[in-house]
Amino acid sequence: MNDIGVIVLAAGQGTRMKSDIPKVLHRLGGTPLFLHALRAAQQLEPSRIAVIVGHGAVAVQQAYSGDDLSWVIQEKQLGTAHAVLCAKPTFLGFTGDILILSGDVPLIHENTLKRLVDQHRGQQAAVTLLTAKLEDPKGYGRIVRDKKQQIARIVEEKDASDLQKQIREVNAGIYVAAAPFLFPALSRVSDQNRQREYYLPDIVAIALSEGQTVANLQVDDAREMTGINTREELARMEKSLQEEINRKWMAQGVTLKDPTTTYIEQGATIGKDTVIGPNTHLCGTTVIGERCRIDGSAYLTDAQLDDEVHLRFSVVLTSCRVANGAIIGPFAHLRPGTDLGRNVHIGNFVEAKEARLGDGTKANHLTYLGDVTIGRDSNIGAGTITCNYDGFQKYKSKIGDRVQVGSDSTLVAPITLGDDVYVATATTVRHDVPDGALVFNDRQERLREGWTEQKRMKMKGTKK
After folding, report:
1. Has domain 231-439 been given CATH number 3.30.450.20?
2. In this model, does residue 464 exceed pLDDT 70?
3. By CB count within 10 A, which of 213, 304, 374, 464 is most buried?
4. What pTM was computed for the model?
């Protein structure tokens, strides 16, 4: 939209959260609360954005990586009107309309914001506010209307009379105001109230006193304007959001065997005909391809799965990539930097970190693969360990194509095994091995017949 600015209020501590973390940094669907509101507003393509920060300002700024907005410090939290007034320098010379929204209202939709702006401009209003009707309006400012049902003023909960508290229409705390009206009006707001704060809703009364138009848009779904002030409210909203996210993916062709125990963050994507079992978490920017199968109790963070990948029961994947047709688990752990080729098998109690495995390679049992590159069609036997750390720094290993590593082998990095190498069972490899070679350690096998019976007799205190 042309000539639109945005102010996001994110300075409060949120004392009812009982947290050292700023309220707007608590996460919903894996995303800090204020980023939900900010991203919705960014869809309007505003020419200027200011985010007001105060408590935990540095942490809030670090949560956003873009450079398309201005950070405004509210040194003292003196109320919402004071917070918006702090953004005045950011909007010097700006003559358009300014959208104001709270950083703790995460479910606001961009379409609602567009409708609010359209309503404001259609009525040529000085200020337009979003309202909603709630069954339980406790905690919200009430919309007081005159005999003609026009907005007369807004009364905050703490300043409302018993009669006013019965009003169900409430102020959502989201406004659009003409910049030439907004900042002069803010300078006139008084702190003569029970809280001794400068209330942003008072600009409505100022506009009316000047004979200017005050408009409103009533939101269809009250959840859009619901703020979060407590952990309980956060949990309820998380559940509501998860139900919405899960319905979306099921509508797009994904099977969730138990939606009530499936947690999918907003940044995750899933291909059609994928089947996801119970107790699965898809976090961050996880990408799941088509026709994948996740048996259950999986925890994926920023992972990428191509098509037809099978995750068996109880696996953890973090910042890794798995190519088509691979089978992982059960009880496997893929750590950051792992990159698995097509049809790779990673079995039970296998851990991989910064490991790159070529197509068709298998490590099916009890193995640690760290800082290693392995070629195609190799087989890593049970109990194999790449020893990549000497207590001071990490070292890399390279294993070629079609290599067979016997069980209980130890590969001491830095080391290179060529193509077609055989590593005998229980071998410790400390030096590079050329293509096609067999590497083994000499260990003499000894036999003592009758040893068990002699041991038993000794333990009983008798000799045969």
Report:
1. no
2. no
3. 374
4. 0.86
